[in-house]
Fold this protein.
Amino acid sequence: MAADTVWCSGGAALRHEDGALTLRRGEEEIRIPLQAVRDVVPDRRAVAVELRVPAGGTPVTHRIDGVSEAAADLFATAVSAALAALPEPDPSFDGAALVTTRSLRIPRNPGPSRTAWQQARTAVWLMLAVVPGLATLIVTSVLFVMHGQAGMLILAIPMGIVTVFLNLASATAGERVLQMWLLPRRGITVMAVRSSPYGKSGKYEYTDPSGTTHSYYRDASASQIEISYHPDDPGQPVGVYPPSTRVLATIGTLLLWAVTAGLIFVAMMAATE
């Protein structure tokens, strides 16, 4: 049974090491140099650490409960032997002045602040992705009601909802294609190294200039691939593709936008007739 540490049933611990007593309790750690200790008293299933106080001062005690009686006795004996080897301090000495307390709570990482570029990008994306489709849904519904065709809402509402989702898909695809063309030329291009086993969807990792490691997922079999990212947003990369792949992606995005625009046009024409 170790004589330099006692543990209580609640997880707290009182340790004697490096010429000091360390009491860890919950999210707090109290360090008491031996020079500040007057006595360590075992009290059945507890250990009390009494601090030195100036003559006539109020006694200060740190206590740990719920310990083994045998451990408490061994601990008190070991610390008392160490205290006996110390010189007697001045009567006016205040041991509490040497006691230090620190929090063991791990602070939450607030995360990186959003840059102006990220905020602008988000605002533009929301405008393109939500406003046209949502405006179509609202305007067509209002026009049908104004023209006395409230029954047409049965068609207008589902059509408007489909338009909103098509609008979101078009904006997402359009943003991705735009990044595929711009970031390899104006962003930072690095090699991402595969970190997942072969035969599964590829997970690739890369490190930005700040030393932060990011992940990028792509259905590829190569051990390394090129990716590009904006300097202000290293966590949102795109793969570097050949021109033919980018052209096909652009055509597909334009067709999706054409379908979205066509549906908006049909909805507006039906509501204004």
Observations:
- The chain has a mean pLDDT of 81.
